[in-house]
Recover the amino acids of this structure.
């Protein structure tokens, strides 16, 4: 069995796969908030006990992308099944993707994994990979498999929260607030409209700069941002886990 974990700034995503499964083909998957981390062992045990996970077999390998810091690593480590554990890191090349960062190790491991996942889903195309979480990252991958570089901006929720904190008269906008279209006629909707326009604008600009043939959008805020995009796009759930899966099962 292969255990995949994406420990992000807000949530911990996981998936279980048979060792011979194709990337993205999982026996079970789910997500927990940081506050729920202590339930991870029981959650994984329950998933393995389920009828749908019988094909996974026993624990053999784990690969973990962690961008939540050393404290998260220390909490996760004793919860992982005994066996071969890899703490995924950005390197010069892996799974058919070359890392074009000036210092390859400085690239966030989640961004590197997401780019690997995008290339698995759309090989041979110039790609923009937008991961919309606590931060929004917008990265470019060339048709011949080079991670060119990218952009990082505050995520949708962080943008709205910063307005609420930094401006005395502006309210906090809830994450599930209805989405306005175009110009808003009230302050709450105007904040949401502006934040959505900024997110979508960054992604669209990246597509134009790169001449991308495909735009893949992932992350918790993807369902809010994607409808605001005027470029062709595809929403992909758990693209970091797909990339981890490919990295764990692909040589080179």
């Amino acid at each position: 069995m292969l255990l995949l974990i994406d420990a992000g700034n807000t949530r911990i995503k996981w998936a279980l796969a048979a060792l011979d499964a194709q990337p993205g083909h999982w026996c079970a998957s789910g997500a927990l908030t940081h506050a729920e981390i202590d339930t991870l062992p029981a959650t994984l045990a329950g998933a393995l006990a389920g009828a749908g996970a019988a094909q996974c077999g026993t624990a053999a390998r784990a690969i973990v992308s962690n961008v939540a810091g050393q404290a998260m690593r220390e909490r996760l480590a004793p919860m992982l099944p005994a066996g071969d554990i890899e703490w995924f890191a950005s390197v010069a090349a892996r799974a058919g993707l070359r890392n074009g960062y000036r210092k390859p190790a400085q690239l966030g491991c989640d961004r590197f994994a997401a780019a690997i996942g995008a290339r698995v889903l759309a090989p041979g195309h110039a790609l923009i990979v937008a991961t919309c979480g606590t931060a929004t990252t917008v990265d470019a991958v060339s048709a011949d498999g080079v991670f060119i570089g990218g952009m990082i901006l505050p995520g949708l929720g962080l943008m709205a929260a910063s307005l609420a904190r930094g401006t005395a008269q502006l309210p906090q906008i809830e994450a599930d607030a209805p989405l306005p279209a175009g110009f808003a006629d009230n302050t709450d909707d105007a904040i949401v409209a502006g934040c959505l326009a900024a997110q979508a604008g960054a992604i669209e600009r990246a597509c134009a700069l790169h001449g991308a043939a495909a735009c893949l959008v992932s992350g918790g805020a993807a369902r809010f941002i994607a409808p605001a995009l005027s470029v062709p796009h595809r929403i992909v759930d758990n693209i970091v886990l797909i990339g981890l899966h490919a990295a764990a099962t692909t040589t080179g």
